[in-house]
Amino acid sequence: MSETTEKIESNGDARRRILNIAVSTVLLESGFETVDKISLETLTEMLQCFFTEVGNSANRYCELSGRVEPVLADVMLALINMGISLQGLEQYAARPNRHVIQPPQQAPVPRT
Amino acid sequence: MQMSRMNSPSVGDDDGGVGHALSDFLLQLENYTPSVPDSVVAYYLNMSGFESQDPRLIRLIALAAQKFLSDIANDALQHCKMRTSSQMSMSKNQKGPKEKKYVMTMEDLVPALQEYGIIAKKPHYFV
């Protein structure tokens, strides 16, 4: 039991580290050179919270209309309900010199 | 940290147009990679019950999150610039045009977040 919980924690940690890198990338793009640890951690927490909240909300909208798999409208409703403006999204996507983080490597499935 | 829901005034007026534009935009996301890897976003979405087979939706969410962060960072940068410039003018030491290094601190982040309706209060022992 303790092994599994430890494994889950380390997995979460790996993803959290990638979120950390993502936040740092965004900050670097917007012109900051350095960030102190508490701000970085706050933004990372917010990013994680954002994903969880959008997932939760979109799933609820989806199930409310009797579907199983979320569609674009559900995600849009979730984002708009959270007060996220979708206005400049295309321009933001097309911005120059954007960085891409390498996806994490998948551990091979252990043989049992 | 509390996230309060606010109405976004910019979207309310012409949501039909935005919806149409966004569904076109979704097609472009087919071969686009946001900064946050798909698998990481998908993990957090799956944790909260969102299971989609369409990677474009995941990319859209990743992009929206990134833009949200970017907007906050821009606001914080403006705060930081204003603060440092006022400090520079207060202390009249002429060191010439030294290189500017912007450091993000909670001092700048908290007012920036407040504009988005997010109240960030961290205990001093939080790291």
Description:
The complex is a heterodimer of chains A (112) and B (127). With 112 residues, chain A is mostly helical. Chain A has 4 helices and 1 strand, in the order αβααα. Chain A is globular. Chain B is mainly α. Chain B is built from 5 helices and 3 strands. Chain B has helices spanning 9-12, 15-28, 38-47, 55-90, 106-115, and strands at 2-3, 103-104, 118-119. Chain B has a two-stranded antiparallel sheet.
Question: How are the secondary structure elements laid out?
Answer:
The complex is a heterodimer of chains A (about 110) and B (about 130).
Chain A: H1 2-30, E1 34-35, H2 37-64, H3 72-81, H4 89-93
Helix pairs in contact in A: 1-2, 2-3
Chain B: E1 2-3, H1 9-12, H2 15-28, H3 38-47, H4 55-90, E2 103-104, H5 106-115, E3 118-119
Antiparallel strand pairs in B: 1-3
Helix pairs in contact in B: 3-4, 4-5
Keywords (chain B): Nucleus, Transcription, Transcription regulation
Protein name (chain B): Transcription initiation factor TFIID subunit 10
Family (chain B): Belongs to the TAF10 family.
Keywords:
heterodimer, A: 112 residues, mainly alpha, 64% helix, 2% strand, B: 127 residues, two-stranded antiparallel ribbon, 5 helices, 3 strands, promoter-specific chromatin binding (chain B), nucleus (chain B), RNA polymerase II general transcription initiation factor activity (chain B)
